[in-house]
Amino acid sequence: MNSTGVDTMDGYLSADSKKKETFMNNSGPGSSRSRLVRRKLFQRILFMLFRLAAGLNGVVLLIVVYYLVSNGWRAINWTFLTQPPMDSMTRGGILPCIMGTLFLGIGALIVAFPIGVMSAIYLNEYARPGKVLRIIRLGISNLAGVPSVVFGLFGLAFFVIYLNMGVSLLAGALTLGAMSLPVIIGSSEEALKAVPETYREASLGLGATKWQTIWRVVLPSALPGILTGGILALSRAAGETAPIMFTAAVFFTPRLPKSIFDEVMALPYHIYVLATAGTEIDATRHLQYGTALVLIVLVLGLNLLAIIWRSRLRKKMK
Amino acid sequence: MVISRGLKEKVMQHFFFVIAFASIAILSAITIFLFTEGLPVFNLVSVKDFLFGIYWYPTSEPPDFGIFPLIVASVSVTLLSASISIPLGVMTAIYLAEVAKPQVRELVKPIVELLAALPSVVIGFFGMVVVAPFLQNTFNIATGLNLFNASLMLAFMSIPTICSISEDAVYSVPNALREASLALGATHLETIYRVVIPAAVSGICTAVILGMSRAIGETMVVLMVAGGAAMVPSSIFDPVRPMPGSIAAEMAEAPFRGDHYYALFATGMVLFVFTFAFNLIADYMSHKYRQVGDATL
To answer: Do the Cβ atoms of A153 and B111 come within 8 Å?
Structure first.
């Protein structure tokens, strides 16, 4: 072990040759050992910093979950989960919000899942590299980057006003669906990529057409991965607030939606309203914590499910 | 069999091709509707007065539609959050891809994913009821709902984005490069910052830009935590009103197709242009400087 190796690497990469010369001239056999100790020490310190940075993510997650659980669990009881809000939302439950969020999330999935999976099939199975593919990919990555509030504006202008759907479950589900499309395309494509090329070759070799190969061979083996992506998209749609603010959600409606043209309450919007716009912000604090707890149990639960399912799949693949 | 196999094949292929354009169709529709609903505001104010006017009083008589304070708020919140999220996100990525043992990696990666999955309204709520009082007492300031609090919350929302994309980039650096560096006597750390990071730099830059794009477009956090004052901030503890927060807060009260409504759509347009530019830059970086095998270094 001596330091010249590093210098060669350095010169090779960044052409930092001046430093290299001084480095080489100074390094006798004795000093290089103490330098190695210093280099190792430096490495230890920095690795410790990296570890702390990674650990901080866990700490933040724990703190958020801790505060919501410790303040929210008292609010949660049977009434809270099965009754509509009462006394201008200072008492009672959040059933319409839970149902609204479920309907919105599932509606978004119904809209986005088929289109997303089919887009992914085109991208991974049919498309050839070239300008068209590049443009489609650019469109998808830009759609993924559109801010959620802009989706809200779009939903308001297009679905609510232009298509005359009004503030409704349908308009909200379509807006959320448009937003989840890139998520589903991304995860489906990953699942399709993980199907070994030999499967396709074997099927084609037996005389199956491309579509038969996709339908009978590729899709069945990619299905669990695709469904995992669907679950992730569902959880994301369920947690979004800004896209439904102008398109689907209302402050208060005591009844559950009867048709897709009804307006709904939703968990995320309910938290926002209670925490910022209510007349009794402090008096309803426990309800706010309770609603937030229900929302993260729903969202993190779905995510955990997807993560566990995916890691099992990966083990199976190996 | 009514239709021949060959015809069916052709039909399927074209069908999928058309479906694949859905994303572009939606993106185009978003652009068209933002602009048709946003551009009418320029009958009332000039583009220059709209972008650089420092007074945002949309409901006073006559109204002032200057979104400069909102733009400054968005940019400052994004930059401050980036100064927190970039080091933390990249360090976490390097830890996961280079340093951590496989078992630790299996544990930490889901944690980062769960952090990403926390709904923005929950983070906003947490910032309001836990972080804001804490900041107010600790720093003895007028309000805990301010630029700094919003940046802090946004940082932890963009860390997962930055971390997971950078990690992919670091992870895909060919092993031959690492082995060469280690064989030449470099320590693990030296290999990381002289070989691995330079090789992964395009992916890391893409990650950083996408993380910032997420921060500038994030709505609920800035709506609930940033304080909401439409003025150019002079300290990091001033309350601010970033663009997404302004749109979300005022849209419900803006009269349909009134001047205020148009102004909010125009604000959305500006926000959209910002994130669109961020995404184009990220896309350009990831294609232009992509690491292809070991040869391009």
So the answer is: no
